[in-house]
Design brief:
The protein is of the alpha/beta class and about 325 residues long. Helix content is about 35%, strand content about 25%. It contains ten helices and 13 strands. The strands form two sheets. It has a nine-stranded mixed beta sheet, sandwiched between helices. Strand 6 and strand 7 (about 105-110) form a beta hairpin. Helix 9 packs across helix 10. The model has no long low-confidence stretch (mean pLDDT about 90).
Length: about 325
Amino acid sequence: MTQCEVVAIGELLVEIMRKRVDSPLDQADDFVGPFPSGAPAIFADQVARLGHSVAFVGAVGQDDFGKCLLDRFAADGVDATCVARIAGLATGVAFVTYFSDGSRQFIFHIGNAAAGQIAPPDASLFADAHWLHICGSSLSAGEEMREACYEAAHLADEAGAQVVFDPNLRPELLGGEEVLRQICAPILDVATLVLPSGEEAQILTGTSDPQAACQALLEGGAQYVGLKRGAEGCTIFTADDVVPVPGFCVEAIDPTGAGDCFDAGFVVGLIEELPLEEVGRLANACGALGATVQGPMQGAAWRGDVDSFISQSA
C-alpha cells in the first residue's frame, strides 16, 4: 500500500443531472451523465490534481459506473487501493436537478448501494498521512459508513494525522438539527480543521451568528475554521487571527463540488505551510474553478491552471 499525505473516506457516486433548469425530479425529462462524484471523492481528486498524494477509502459496484469512478482516479493519480469492488451491489448514484433560484434537489442511492458498504481502513494507512478528510454527507449516509468514518478518525488521531471536517450537511439524507449535531460530534471532537458554511456552523454550534459559531468551533477544539462565504470568498479563524480572503469572480455553471475543491485547496495550502491568506486564496481559486464546468468532479483543476488563474486575477 502506497503511503499518502492525505486520506479521504466516504461515498463514491456517479451523478446524473437534468439537462434543463427547473425540471423537478418527479416528472419525466432528459438527464445527462454519468459524472464521477461523491463529496469526499471530489476532494480527493482535487488534492491529486494539486500535486499531492491522496488515498481513498470507499466502495463501488462491479459495474460500468464503478469503472467510471476508478478510471478517473487512475487518470488523476488517486490511490484506490482501499476502494472495494463489491459484487451484487450497484455503484452509488445521485440524481440532481437545478432551479433558477440557485437551489438544488437530490435523490441519493448510497446506503442501499455499494457506496454505503465501507469497512474501516487498516491503521497502517495513516502511518505517514498528514490529514484525514471526512464529510458530514458520509456520516449521514448510513450506520455502516458512519461507524467506518468514526473508526478512521480514531485511527488517524492515534497515528498523529490531523482530521479535516466538512460538515456538508445533507437534510435529504438525515433530517433534524439535533440529530446532525449528534452524529457530527465525534468528528468535531478530534478535528483540527473545520470548513463550514455559515448556516452549517450555526447548526453545529446552536448559535445564531456565523462568526460566533466559528469562534465556538475553535473553543470546541479546532485549530482552524475556514468559513465558506460563496462568491465573497472565505474567512479563516484561528485562536489568534481572523483573516478574510476575497473570492474570485467567475460564471458559475455547476456549483456541485465547488466546496469540495475549496476543501482540497485549503488542506494543500496547510500542507505547504503557506501563510493563511495564501491558503484562503488557493482554496477560493479551487472552489471558483470548480463551479465553472458542468459535472461535480469536472471542475477540479490542475495545479498549473489554478496558479495561472490566481496570477491572472491578481
